[in-house]
Structure formats: structure tokens, C-alpha cells
Amino acid sequence: MGSSDKPPGGYDKKSMAHDLSELIRQLGHEKVDLVGHDIGAMVAFSFAVNHGDQVRKLVMLDVAHPSSGYLKFASPAGGGNVRRQDR
Fold first, then answer.
1. How far is Cα 38 from Cα 8, in angstroms, rounded to an integer?
2. Biggest alpha carbon distance in the chain?
3. CA-to-CA distance for 28 and 2, rounded, in angstroms?
4. What are the pLDDT digits (tens) for 67-84?
């Protein structure tokens, strides 16, 4: 945030979700219950969109409701495999 340092690349939500996917595989897990808070919820959402086969449950806390706008930054194709449930 702000003037915090960051790497020159790979700091977007899709890349972080990919890194998380690889970590889960390296740890020997097939599926996880994933919890994301605040900005981390956006990474968790991107993970669920791009690596849904690894997600058993997804919990997002203190973040705006994931609208179709999230898909623009969360998935490579801009669409993903998210099932939307309107209430």
C-alpha cells in the first residue's frame, strides 16, 4: 500500500493466486478451505475463479460483494467459472 516496496512483476491478483495454487500443490493438498480478508479476499476470489478444482470452500471477509467487475482482474479470460447466485 502507498509507498510500500513490491516486486517489479507478479504482484497482481492472478499471479498471487497462481503462486498460492503451486504452494498448495507443493504441500501435498488437493483441495483447501480458503479464507481471504480485505485485499486478501480479492486474491482468494481470483484463486477460486482460476483454480476452482482446488477449492472446497471459499470465505471472503470485509470486502465488497464479488460482482462481474471482479472477473476483469481475477481471471485471464475475463469470465472464469464463477457461478453467480443472486438473492
1. 23
2. 41
3. 36
4. 777 667 676 654 445 454
Structure confidence at residue 32 (pLDDT): 97
**Per-residue exposure over 53-86, b if at least 16 CB sit within 10 Å of its own CB, e if not:** ebbeebebeebeebeeebbeebbeeeebebeeee
With residue 56 as reference, give the H or E element that holds it. strand 55-61
Return the SS3 of 27.
Answer: coil
Alpha helices in 1-87 (DSSP H): 13-26, 39-50, 70-74
pLDDT value at position 29? 97
Who wins on pLDDT, 84 or 43? 43
At position 20, the amino acid (one-letter code) is L
What the block records as the C-alpha cell of 18 is 497462481
Tell me, what's the pLDDT at 8?
83
